[in-house]
Each structure stands twice: as C-alpha cells, then as structure tokens.
Automatic annotation (TrEMBL):
The keyword Lipid metabolism does not apply. It comes from marine metagenome. Keywords: Membrane, Transmembrane, Transmembrane helix. The chain crosses the membrane at residues 94-112, 124-157, 163-189, 196-215, 255-275, 287-303, 309-325, 332-351, 371-388, 428-446, 466-489, 498-517, 523-540. This is Uncharacterized protein. The keyword Lipoprotein does not apply.
Amino acid sequence: MKKSKSISFLLTTVGLLLFAALYAYSVNIFWNEGTMDLGAHFEWYESLLNSDFSGSILNTPPDYYTPVYAYILVIIKNYTNISSGLHAFKTMTIAFHLISVFFSWRIIYFLTNSLQRSFCGACLVLFAPTAFLNINLVVHFDSIYCALGLASIYFFLRRKPVFGLIAFGIGFTIKGLIIFLLPAIIIYLISEKIRLRYLLTLPACYLLLILPAGFAGKDMLPMIMTYYERGSSWNALTWNAPNVYQFIPSNNFSLFAPLGIFGICVATYLFVFTLLKEKVRFNNRSLLILFLISLVFFPFFLPKMHDRYFFFADILSIVYVFIYPRYFLVPILITCASFIAYLPFVAANYSLLAPLVVQNQTGFFVHKFQYSFQISSLMNLTAIILLIRQFNTEIKNTSNYNIHSIKILLIKTHRDVKEIIKECKSSTATVMIIGLITTLMLQLNWLMIMKDYGFEKNVLERLTMAILLGGILFTYFWLIYLSLIKVFFKNLSELRKFVFFDSMSMLSFLVTLQVLFKIPLNNVTVLAWLTLFIGIKIILMRPYLYPFLAFAKNLKIYF
C-alpha cells in the first residue's frame, strides 16, 4: 500500500513538472502579446523605475484601483529586472494564477481524498481557456482576487472562518468582484452560528492595506471611496457579459438597472430567509455548490457587468466538476459562455481571431453571428438551474429544506400583506405616496445622468410607467417589512404611528441628501444610504427595527 502511494506521488510530481514546463512554454509564446486596455497602467509602471516607494504610491495607477496593485508592482520593480509594464503585469497575474492552481488542488483533494482527481483538476485550472485569454492576451487582474477567493473557500471548507474572512478581505481590497461570494459566506456564518461581528474583518483588512499609501501621503477618502466611484462610472445594462440583460434593449438602462438590483436583493433575501428559517446545515459539498451558485447568480442578474466578471465562476466550476463528475455540463456551459463573451474584445486585437467578429456602427466589435451573446446567456441560465436543482437535492439529506419552502414563504407573506392592507388602509396609502415620491426622485436623477448618453427614448411614457411600477413595488415590500415587525407592537394604532414617522424620516433623509448635500440619488446610492439609515437605527437599539432577523428567537447568537 505504501509503495503504491509512493509511486502515485512520484507520478503526480513528474506530471506537475511536465505541465508546468508546458505552461511556461505557452506563456513564453505570448509573452509580448497583450491588449492595450491597460495601456495607461503599463506606462505608469515604467514611470516607477526611477521612483522611491512614496513616489510610486502617490502616483497610483488610473481607473479607480486600490493602492494594493502599487505595492505588488513596487515589489516586482525592486526585486526583478523587469522594465516593461506589460511583462510586470503578466508576472503578477501569472503568479496569482499559480496560487489559484494550488488552492484548486487543495480543495479537490480535501473533498475527494484522491490524488489523481486533484492533479487533473489542478492541470485543467492551469490551462482553463478563459484564464489563458485573461492572463496572456487581455492581461487583467482577475486571477489575483480569484486566488484569494479560492483560498477563502478552502479555509471555510476546513471550518477556519477567521482565515477565510481574512483571505476574503484581502481579495476585496484588491478587487471588489469577490463580493459575489459574500451572500454565501453570510449564510455559512449564520448556519454555523458564527458571530457576524467577525465580518468586521473585511473593513479592517481594507483599512490596514490602504494605510501604507496614506502614510506615504495619499488622500485616504478617495481610497475608501474607490469602489463607489468605479460603480458609478459604468452606465450600461451589460458590457458584453453573458447575463439576462442581453435580452433587454440598452436604451432602458434607467428603468431596468434599479429594478434588477432591487429584484436580486429581494431574491437573495428570500433565499437566505428560507435557508435560515429551516435551519439548514451544510456539509462541505453543499457548501461548495452554494459558493458556485453565488458566483454565477449575481453577475447573471446584476446590471453593469463586464465580460470578465464570470472569471472566478469559470475556475470554481472546474474544481466543482472533479467533485461531481456527473455534472460535467455545468463547467462546460459556464466556460463556453465566458469564452464567447471574451471573443469580441480579444479578436479585435489579434488577426488570427479577427474573422469571428465585425465592427458595428458605434465602433465596438461584435460577433458575426447576431445572437451569440443571447446563446451564451442561456448557457449560464441553464448552469444556474442545474446548480440550484443539485443544491436542493444535496441539502435534502441534511435538513427538511427544499426549494418549495420559498413558495410556501411567498404564499404566507402575501396573505400577511393582504391583512395589513385591510387593517391599515391609511398606512398603506402613506407608504404608497412615499414610494411614488422616492421613485420619482430616482427617475429624475437617472434622466439627468443619462441624457448625455442619448439612451432615453419616449421619456414621458417610460417615466410614468417606471414611477407607478416602482411605487407599487416599494409599497408591497414595505408591507412585507411591516408584516415581519408587527409582532413588536401592542396594537394597530402603534403600528400606524410607526409607519408614518418612520416613512417620513426616511423620505426626509433622502431629500436632505439630494437637496442640501447635492448627492445624486440613483439605484446604487439609495440602497447604500438606506442600508446606512437602517443600520443607524439598529445601533440605537430599537428592537422592532430588526425586520430581517425577526424570525430568530435569540438575536444575540448572531452578534
């Protein structure tokens, strides 16, 4: 037995060395290739060669990136002879991709205890098609946060949440796209009865990593607001991402962007609520599926997504298939969808792929086949459905939960809302008015923002429909909120007073931001400020303002 294990280990080591040599050869072929999407960053790196640390940090790269990239590139500058910006960025992304390969191997081995599977999985991750395009031709930073995300998943699977949160926090400081993992992490923490205060690790990591740049003389506030600024700068439903917005005309951005964000928040809440209410316990395999669902689901339904935003899902889906070989279709669908999304951008820069794309009237390159993006979106949708079905099957064995729990919850919630409407007509009318005013403010801001882009048509009709639809949705979900917290009130009179004063305070808060502080209200800022508003009230210890935790018998277990 020991002899066979030694032979297996030796063969695996030799195989890894051979694949490493093959990978090095392939990297060398494309070593001088790269798109100019990060051309300004390459020039920035080359300007660092004669700068000290402070000068390098103060002259940080453009496009709203955190200074962590500067730290890594300063290390490359000081400890290597690389003078080309392109080569420095490739060195950084390749190094982190190798870390991704290592943690992919560790995850597969931990879940299967098979050296052969983990070896094959690591090799496939090493040569993943989208990873190869991203690192060697596109030259972007996605391999960095992916490596830290895989490290985070590995530590969560090993039931080491603190290390997992630290890895996640570092990854978030480097690139915000790792945030797609956060809902799954919160579900894991609550299901394992781990106190949510450990989530403070995330802002702590962020602040600690930007402090060196602050000490070097860089202004702290812009660094703290990096992701807010970046999120506000993209105004299109999709940037070639294979998601649901490929089926929606781009001139409806101001209507569908806020609805998309609002809808995904509601869907996430329902999913989390039912999982926690049913006290679902996760084994390691179901937890891995949950992480993968989170990585595919959010970029699929969120607006403003780019073609590269499924990169982490591509890599984790390869890890997943070596744990669930029967579901080989899932990584094929996800990877093919991402590959199709990459092609217009990559083919525009390489003559070998140029016959696959054409240039449209706006100057962008698109697929010759008109419906390629829609097909890639359907691929991702199919993968999501397969993953949710498998997740449902997996957790049936460990709890009473099944996918129909969401349906039961929706029916019960709708019944509660109807009762509140009958009993509190004046409160319902108040909430409806607040909803209409809030939606009107949002729409007017969107029109002001978008008029320079020429996206809006039939403004009056769209504005009227958006306000009515937004007001109705606002009212309905506020009534759901009331159905959760009404148990904290002695009678309906107290509930009516609460509705009036709380809704007035919320509206006053938003109007103050808009009028006095000149903060434009769009779907992102409203969600952010309302979250802060509710958070402040929770801090003030008003217990009936715990709507999302009202089902828990003992709230202290979460904090």
